[in-house]
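Hi R.,

Here's the chain you asked about this morning:
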Amino acid sequence: MAKYRRKLKEIEAFQYDGDFMNSNGEYYVPEWAVEALKNGILYYDSQNENEPHSTLFISHPNGFVLDIKVGYYIIRQSDGIISACTESYLNEQYEIIE
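And here is the predicted structure, written out as tokens:
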């Protein structure tokens, strides 16, 4: 996981690859992402009722729901709000902190 900074505002981020667990059933994402999954902030569902629950969604505090595509970055802001963005947006708005 890498850290990024935007206008003196730090976030934590990782790139979503389609899963949160390896083949041994172990999580390989940050603990805050696991907690968000357990608490329903991040959740799997389907685009329609005839499909399996294989799409990852994020529920924002304001009620907005976003489906997260493979390759998007899932970010946690300093205030704890979790959201997602494309790699190009992340690179335009944030710089990586080593």
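One quick note: The longest strand covers residues 9-15.

Cheers,
M.
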